[in-house]
Amino acid sequence: xxxxxxxxxxxxxxxxxxxxxxxxxxxxxxxxxxxxxxxxxxxxxxxxxxxxxxxxxxxxxxxxxxxxxxxxxxxxxxxxxxxxxxxxxxxxxxxxxxxxxxxxxxxxxxxxxxxxxxxxxxxxxxxxxxxxxxxxxxxxxxxxxxxxxxxxxxxxxxxxxxxxxxxxxxxxxxxxxxxxxxxxxxxxxxxxxxxxxxxxxxxxxxxxxxxxxxxxxxxxxxxxxxxxxxxxxxxxxxxxxxxxxxxxxxxxxxxxxxxxxxxxxxxxxxxxxxxxxxxxxxxxxxxxxxxxxxxxxxxxxxxxxxxxxxxxxxxxxxxxxxxxxxxxxxxxxxxxxxxxxxxxxxxxxxxxxxxxxxxxxxxxxxxxxxxxxxxxxxxxxxxxxxxxxxxxxxxxxxxxxxxxxxxxxxxxxxxxxxxxxxxxxxxxxxxxxxxxxxxxxxxxx
Length: 445
Hints:
Layout (H helix, E strand, L loop, with lengths): L9 H8 L14 E6 L1 H4 L3 H12 L6 E6 L5 H6 L1 H4 L7 E5 L10 H17 L3 E5 L17 H17 L3 E2 L1 H28 L8 H13 L16 H15 L4 E7 L5 E4 L1 E9 L2 E8 L19 H4 L2 E6 L7 E6 L2 E2 L4 E2 H6 L1 E2 H6 L10 H30 L7 H23 L5 E7 L2
Helix pairs in contact: 3-10, 3-14, 6-7, 8-9, 8-10, 14-15
């Protein structure tokens, strides 16, 4: 069962966050946002999650994202491809997430000098720069022992100072993540070993197999579960990169609020960011329809296990439900479009208010059916991935079209491919349209 350690904060701390933000999110109507980076960006993980969040949270805005990550690149090598791989998109926003490959040969002063050249180039293209620190190396370092991450720490500190001086939007994912990843590293080693242990536990002839099975049973009951960031220390897999996306969104001031509905058994309710109708109360069962203005954070299936480890993800997805009038004591199941969530909730938790986001994504891997929020999240993420496949083709063609002596027809082909990319943007927007959902809360006997 998912640990509801933050549930009592839902309508106290989290709701208060909806009215203020430390930064103004830099995404505006009509923006074309190019995400310049190295191989970590080129993985199309955290950049895709970041983009999917924006389509889910801002469905009334028209905008587009383009990935411009290249493995092994530094600020200098990114500047060398700027014309055909960034400026050719006619961007209005360019975020820069570089530093992992710069650290081998650049002091913090040299790093910032190069970053100043990048900012000048972005401004010359009439785009707005956004500065993002590099992610940490997931090697077990924490701020108390930062040895292998010392240069990236220095880059983050100097980039913050530079961004403040230049009045640029800035996100420091490095310092939000290094302790989370570092303290999790021993448990990550365990998480990576569990599949092997489970395989060994199937061998009845193995010496000590009963002790191994007891150990595995204890791990199955442990909370929070061991979580692997996956990938390698420099290139996290989906769980690690979901934490990166959430950290960047928070730091840049993205809106954490989805919607809230406060209900009572008498049929009175207060809503923000949603419409509730068709409310019915039948003994120990409540049902209603809910149409939200925007959607929760689209969480990929392969990364959902990281939510308990990094509360920022659910904090950035405040999908709130509260039932004020006294409910009968006990555990309540929640169904969305007749699909039950895997976790039940007490009447006390409902009275205090719950964030539905962790409930929606906490489900067994072998669940017979998935709820419609998960289905829509998958659709958004798939549409983003499909669009980025076209973006990859566009980038290769753009490089050839902008080369010296390029055949004129390449520019025509590029224009046609641009239309296909823009059509793919519309498919993401369509996938992210809010849908009316039917909720049922039923007392379990």
